[in-house]
User: Fold this.
Amino acid sequence: MGSTSAENNAANNPGTSGVGRRDLIRRSAALGLVAVPSMGFLSACASGGGDGDAGEDTKGKTSKDNPFGVKKGSKLDVVIFKGGYGDDYAKAWEASFQKKWGVASTHTGTQEITGKLQPRFNGGNPPDIVDNSGAQKIKIDVLHKNGQLLDLAEVLDAPSVDDPSKKVRDTLIPGTIDAGLQEGKVVALNYIYTVWGLWYSGKLFKEKGWEEPKTWDDFLAVCKDAKSQGIGGLAHQGKYPYYINVAIMDLIAKTGGLDAMKAIDNLDPKAFAGSDAALAAVEAIYEVVEKGYLMPGTNGLTHTESQTRWNQYKAAFITSGSWLENEQLKQTPADFDMKFLPMPVLADSQMPFEAIRAGSGEPFIIPSKARNLPGAKEFMRMMLSKEWSTTFAKEANSLTILKDGVDPSVQLRPGTQSTVEASKAAGDNTFRFLYTEWYSEMDTAIQNASNELMAKRIQPKEWLKRAQAAVDKAAKDPASKNNRRE
Assistant:
């Protein structure tokens, strides 16, 4: 999930529910990688905090143009999640960094973030900067509790590369730093502006004469017609139930409004078990299961397997975030015409069809024990320059959290462009859950319940019971009182 009043309020109040749209209308929306925290917790071996192990070999003289004291000839250890966005953008950044500062990078592109980095964190020898994403990302809340993450306030309060009269935080889309908050501190920089919802093929819809559904009844009607023609209605990435929770949680928020969303993030004792919106949402998803509208086999597939079958026109819809287009570039037919769709609404929904879950994704972190802290801080500051933001857009077909940060000449692909149009239509009707970042154990428990629901091993009321139990367990942690949305 700047020092203008709006952004200060967001930084101090994680309850900011919408994303400021005034600056977003012109260059709204794109992709991020919010991932499934599916690997084990880090061991409780804390690494301490503060200045890490940066010594004389990494600390240079500070100046107006070098606020963190980057030292020429030092080294930077960079680890990038090589998923939907690849890692070419980071290689381009690193080349630019070396040219400007004389700092060479050790680059690692991988999907095995936890597997490769957990031993390094526990051994007190972490990288300098990490793109902590994907199915195997390290759980942010655990790293924070262990004192293993740098408070990024110094970076956010540093002068902007493009306009030194402004702080870095002043240049960001309001609300986008919320997803990196832990107990009031920003410990992760979610770099990419992301939307979540349903996706479909414009080509398939045109061929079948289907219209974009705005209500849940219309959605079910398309699924029914698809099934009659041997096509799945809804595909989801069954082995990663994070994705079906996109649909469930979107329906809860749109049906019950922002209060229903905040009740979950704030660990309300009636967040699920006493919520009419939650019951309606889970029953709606379960109806898809009961009527046989799921794409056959989808419950047993990975994200890429389900998405590839969807690209082969074996399902009408799929749930995902806006990284989907990048992730499926090689599997998507040239005339597929990928389109984004806000979650269709149930009866008496408090939010309109156009409302979308939107915010920032793809969290970058600086370990507190990073050896080259000056270099890591400057690298992150340069990530929030127009030059590096444009580089990312060109290489990864995505926009960042930097306001007007991408050169207008950059051409976006159809799916990404459709998220831009959806974001314009949404206006201020946006929402974003934060429990996934604040309470990873709770998130995993809810995902597990969703897995059972989609396989018809439990009913909606049992799902609500299990989800509420996960909320109640998280609420027993005294630290949870430091995370609050108003």
Q: What stands out?
A: The mean pLDDT is 89. The longest strand covers residues 189-201.
